[in-house]
Amino acid sequence: MEKGKILQTMRRHGVTLAVFGALMTGMTAVVNMLTKPTIEHQALLQQKKLFDEVIPSDVYNNDMQKECYNVTDPALGSTMIHPLYLARKDGIPVAAVIETTAPDGYAGAIQLLVAADFHGKVYGTRVMEQHETPGLGDKIEVRVSDWIKGFAGKIVNGPTDTRWAVKKDGGMYDQFTGATITPRAVVRSVKRTALFIETVPSQLSHLTPCGARDE
């Protein structure tokens, strides 16, 4: 008899826990559903803020965030898919903003956002993710120094443009004291990315929109 009561008690507790778990799962799902639009909206606002830092608003008048394409190319520093956002002026493609990778940073890959037109002119660059040494390599971050702003307005005159290097290598960009590898990696990546962006007009009809599934 005592054993039966114990079993009944265990069953009741089991049912209670199951109901409680189901309720918590349901509440979590509801909270996620309610907060997802807000989170997505904030992410879009942050992205737009970053776009405004790398490309002047008078260069384009379309909604770049709605003109996203998936691109892959060794020039972008990795084999992964890189989002490219197309800038148009009165319907005409004029520039692009692209998430690119500098694979050879001191502490690993550096993720960058680069904006350039189709003639080699760089509008701006910002770091999206990096793991460089604090106080040395992290000077590529705009919150630490203005070094990264030095790309704005610079022009890449083809693959053999030797000015696109740090001064230690005969180029026009400052390196950091005690940290040459990091700025060297960023300069190389921005140059390669700007050259890639020059090829975008010829690829437009073949680009896959972001979110589209391959058939």
How far apart, in Å, are the first and last alpha carbons?
65 Å
**Physical arrangement of strands within the biggest beta sheet:** 5-4-3-2-1-6
Helix content: 25-40%
Note the run of SSEs as H and E. HEEEEEHHE
C-alpha Rg, in Å? 25 Å
Could you name the ranges where pLDDT drops below 50 across 5 or more consecutive residues? none
The number of helices is 3
Helix and strand composition category: alpha+beta
Strand content: 15-25%
Can you summarize the main beta sheet?
6 strands, antiparallel
Keywords summarizing the entry:
3 helices; single chain; alpha+beta; 215 residues; 35% helix
Describe this structure in words.
By secondary structure, the chain is an alpha+beta fold. The protein has helices spanning 2-54, 181-198, 200-203, and strands at residues 68-73, 78-89, 92-105, 108-117, 122-129, 208-209. It has a six-stranded antiparallel sheet. The longest helix has 53 residues, at 2-54. The relative contact order is 0.13.
Question: Would you spell out the secondary-structure blueprint of this structure?
Answer:
Elements: H1 2-54, E1 68-73, E2 78-89, E3 92-105, E4 108-117, E5 122-129, H2 181-198, H3 200-203, E6 208-209
Antiparallel strand pairs: 1-2, 1-6, 2-3, 3-4, 4-5
Family: Belongs to the RnfG family.
Subcellular location: Cell inner membrane
Domain FMN-binding: 105-197
What can be said about this structure in brief?
Helix content is 35%, strand content 24%. It has helices at 2-54, 181-198, 200-203, and strands at residues 68-73, 78-89, 92-105, 108-117, 122-129, 208-209. The N and C termini lie far apart (65 Å).
